[in-house]
Hints:
The complex is a heterodimer. By secondary structure, chain A is α/β, with parallel strands linked by helices. In chain A, about 35% of the residues lie in helices and about 25% in strands. In chain A, strands 5-6-7-3-8-9 form a six-stranded mixed beta sheet, sandwiched between helices. Chain A has a four-stranded antiparallel beta sheet with strand order 11-12-10-13, covered by helices on one side. A three-stranded antiparallel beta sheet of chain A has the order 2-1-4, with helices on one face. The two termini of chain A are about 35 Å apart. Chain B contains ten helices and two strands; from the N terminus they run H-H-H-H-H-H-H-H-H-E-E-H. In chain B, strand 1 and strand 2 (about 250) form a beta hairpin.
Amino acid sequence: MIRVQTLTKRYGDKTAVDGIDFTVRPGKVTGFLGPNGAGKSTTMRMIVGLDQPSAGIAEVNGRAYRDLPAPLREVGVLLDARAAHRRRTAYKHLLSIAATHGIGRARVGEVMELTGIDAVATRRVGGFSLGMGQRLGIAAALLGDPQTVILDEPTNGLDPEGILWIRALLRQLAAAGKTVLLSSHLMSEMAQTADHLIVIGRGAILADGSMRDVITGATPSSVRVRTHEVERLMAALTAPGVTVSIRADGAIDVEHLSAEQVASTAAAAGIVLHEVTSVEGSLEDAYLALTAAATEYRATTSPSGANS
Amino acid sequence: MTLTAPAHRSDARTRRPAFACVLRSEWIKLLSIPASLITLGGIFFIGMTGSLFLAATLESSGVPSVPSLERTMGDVTMPMVISGQIIAGILGVMMIGAEYSSGTIQLTLVAVPDRLRVLWAKALVAGSAVTGVAFITALSTWAATYPFYAEHGLAAPLTGPGVASALVGSAAYLGFCSLFGLGVGALVRSTTAGSIIVFAATLLIPVLSSVLPYGLLSRLIRITLLGNAGDAMSRVSDGSGPFLDLWSGHISTAAGWVIAAVSAGLALTAGAIALRRRDA
């Protein structure tokens, strides 16, 4: 369990994290989503005591991180996959971290096997790919068999196989009742992995809820219909508060009506429908809608075709 | 493959790991990078070859007519002290500078949130590794060069006045240099910048200060800099002369110890304050 209250970080006049509150609960994968520079990493660094908050508190299992007696046994942290001495072997790297908590060689061997780096245990970290670095970082995070896992962009640099692996691992950790906080700016990754979402932009929380709530809250759902009698159907559906639009491929999108209402209206008018589909917004749509105002670095051209 | 470690004690979560665990971690870190083994080996190699060179060329450089323990022990300890002080200081800087350059400082502080514990563990490891290697070097150098000096009746027996203390002093001085380097490294967070400061404090400024115009400031610099303390600590002195004489620049062996310890202590304190106060 991670609890953050009115957490604030200021660098001079610039406020990186602006009085945010959230709770990360056990048994779920919580995605921490936001554009670059939104304050994700700074928040995570404050949670684990690397950065001192300007105001507010961050607690893990009811205590400030630096008051945890044996932090690695409670919290596993991956902040930067590149954080390893290039000239040290993977095994010694893990052993040096394990030693701080009296964790033995057997457990080091276990996490190396679990993360699939046992074959390169005696190789120097400098020769590792980013994906291997991520696996090494995750191995380090799991050393103390922690109840809480905090991972900053863990899929960065992983190959498709690695991404599938980490997705399964995170699901497995959550299923075992652990608290999993995972940051990313990759929506597709979040959509597949997270149950709960916290969206942050310019240092403020934009949304905090289950994946479904966040998506439906930020994007309108619509009904997509196909028919040969486009004009008749559009006329039949037109009513106050209902938006009907025609797509380039000839399909009609209807907002603010359920699929059932659309089908009944069509039947009453004697119109044959070839397709009726409820279309929910994607996480990507929700994300873009939420962060539209809060994106710090954005190209002037907006992405086309984002409305799939 | 198991996700959870089956066999750890239930109290492991609630009990703070012993300081010995942090120490062990720092030893593993030190001994698992080639650079630190090279620097430690370098202290031995340079000290040994330098002194052997002086001993072997004793005849051609002119054998002193009067046996002098001070002169003989100077040849034994000086090569190690002069180059070793920089190597030891850089090793100290590297102990923490390499953590910042590689990013492992995050992992270190996440594992041990009490930052002073990390710094003290590093200090103990750097200090004992360097002092140990330097003492072995000094003793081996003394033993290896003994026959050369004995041939001319110039040998410095271990029981001779000040001989053993010169060996211990030269080793301890290198240890203080590594602590000084560690403190500076924690302050500047860069191996390069830290190494330059170590070089300046041990070698460059002591040399430059001798060409400064004669005045209170140049005297003070001469006396308080780390480099001159090493000279005093590794020298065989007859025990005469004042503890510290600002105007003649005389530093007694005891004063050398005090100056080196204070330098290392101040650097470590500054490093500790910086490490605690700043975001990692």
